[in-house]
Write a structure and sequence with these properties.
Elements: E1 2-9, E2 15-23, E3 32-34, H1 40-43, H2 47-59, E4 61-62, E5 74-77, H3 80-90, H4 94-106, E6 110-112, E7 119-122, E8 127-129, H5 132-150
Antiparallel strand pairs: 1-2, 3-8, 4-5, 5-7, 6-7
Length: 151
């Protein structure tokens, strides 16, 4: 963390203004990117859905190798620990967490893994934790994959 202090003084030595600027560097893995345009579902979330979505952001891990498997890169493992923490943080029941996960998946904010139970992915068109260049690859790959299926 870097702090920069700027003090402006007049000719009499009086302090006119003081400005302190703090710069904190974080890795791309700690920074969640959220695209709000064309994301009306996000604005209509219930309190429980929002709390679980935030927990998904915190728990998501970016795996670039998943792109080669036609999967979005931000994986969320909704195991017992995840559900217990989410329930505690949101002051809701584990059953409500399960309902919120199902609803978030239905609203296409999360993508449920078709093969593995309790595995979700953040929809990379709406949310992404990672390098912006990686998100572009994932979305391009996803679009190409969807087009290939339509033929």
């Amino acid at each position: 963390m870097i702090e920069q202090e700027t003090i402006k003084v007049n000719e009499d030595g009086e302090i006119i203004s003081a400005d302190i600027k703090t710069i904190k560097k974080v890795s791309y893995g700690e920074f969640m990117q959220v695209w709000l345009k064309d994301n009306q579902e996000f604005w209509d979330l219930t309190k429980s859905e929002y709390a679980v979505m935030v927990q998904c952001w915190r728990a998501s891990v970016y795996y670039p190798e998943l792109v080669d498997e036609n999967l979005p890169g931000n994986k969320v493992t909704a195991d017992k620990q995840f559900k217990d923490i989410s329930a505690k943080n949101a002051n809701i029941t584990v059953r409500s967490v399960d309902s919120a996960l199902a609803s978030l998946s239905k609203k296409n904010l999360l993508i449920k893994d078709k093969e593995y139970k309790g595995i979700y992915y953040l929809n990379p068109k709406l949310f992404f934790k990672g390098k912006i260049s990686d998100r572009t690859k994932i979305i391009k790959h996803s679009i190409e994959y969807q087009i290939a299926n339509k033929e």
